[in-house]
Design a protein that fits this description.
The chain has five helices and 16 strands. With 293 residues, the protein is an alpha/beta fold.
């Protein structure tokens, strides 16, 4: 957990979203969505300036825009920049860029955000599966439950890195987060090490145990939790697909998938054999849900 103090007018921490919809050998188009919140009692004229820094620490692109942000409101800006001769993120050499966003009022910088991201093209095909930067990648993955022996879920950074290294040494290139989101550092290390991630949020949309989350809190919290999860994780290069449930069922699957596509149109959805008619990619989970596709 982090407690961050800001000025009344500030950049929204999870409101910065980076997409790379056009990639070629010569150029990558970087689209930047950013949100500004005004918690004061008067409107403010603001300027947002962004810098993209390459893996060698050099500024390679900049952009700037301005917005009048009314009191008590959030304003969204859409900026873009071109990165020449981009170094792509992949499993072999996971090149990472950094984006620095500065919020200025009256010429003075009042807030900054720094986000790491990767430039890569990915898509799925029915016949061949997952493609990354023009290469057909066979996913050799594990379902990694949130535990680490004697430390349980309180996993230090060094142990996260050691565990991922061991998996890579045995030939693994993908992790399914079974069955809950992880701490931020887990995804950052996967970004740095070139590990592909199926990020998963819910272990049940309904009651699976006497007093589990599905029974106690899902109905009242699922949308808030889903939106917070997507906004917090969608800039990670390592995440290639969203998994929306494990060993569960229900018509709510349609809404889960819709919100994923709303907040992140770049990735597909799947599940552990849960409401598969609403998902983009069929998920098979043994016989825990059903015996057939």
């Amino acid at each position: 957990m982090r407690l961050i103090a800001t000025d009344p007018v500030h950049l929204v921490g999870d409101g910065l979203y980076i997409k790379t919809p056009e990639i070629s050998v010569d150029r990558a188009l970087v689209e930047i969505d950013i949100e500004i919140f005004n918690d004061s009692d008067q409107p403010e004229q603001t300027v947002v300036a962004t810098s993209i820094i390459d893996p060698n620490g050099q500024v390679v692109a900049t952009s700037e825009d301005n917005a009048l942000v009314r009191a008590g409101e959030t304003t969204a800006l859409e900026l873009s920049a071109n990165v020449a001769n981009p170094s792509l993120w992949d499993t072999d050499i996971p090149h990472l860029y950094a984006l620095r966003a500065e919020l200025k009022i009256g010429g003075a910088t009042v807030d900054t955000l720094n986000v790491t991201f990767g430039i890569r093209e990915m898509h799925w095909e029915n016949e061949t599966g997952f493609w990354l930067n023009g290469k057909n990648i066979k996913l050799k993955g594990v379902s990694d439950h949130l535990e680490a022996g004697p430390v349980g879920a309180a996993i230090p950074d060094e142990l996260i890195r050691w565990k991922i290294q061991l998996l890579q040494e045995m030939g693994c290139n993908a992790i399914r987060c079974a069955h809950n989101p992880r701490v931020r550092r887990f995804y950052e290390i996967c970004d740095e090490m070139g590990m592909l991630v199926m990020d998963e949020i819910f272990d049940g949309w309904k009651r699976k145990a006497a007093e589990d989350h599905g029974h106690q809190a899902f109905a009242g919290w699922w949308e808030r939790d889903l939106r917070a999860w997507l906004r917090a994780h969608r800039n990670h290069a390592s995440i290639i697909i969203w998994s929306l449930g494990n060993e569960t069922r229900g018509e709510v699957g349609a809404e889960l998938a819709r919100i994923c596509h709303e907040l992140d149109p770049t990735r597909l959805t799947t599940s552990g054999h849960s409401a598969t008619q609403f998902m983009d990619v069929e998920g098979v989970n043994g016989s825990s849900e059903k015996m057939t596709f």
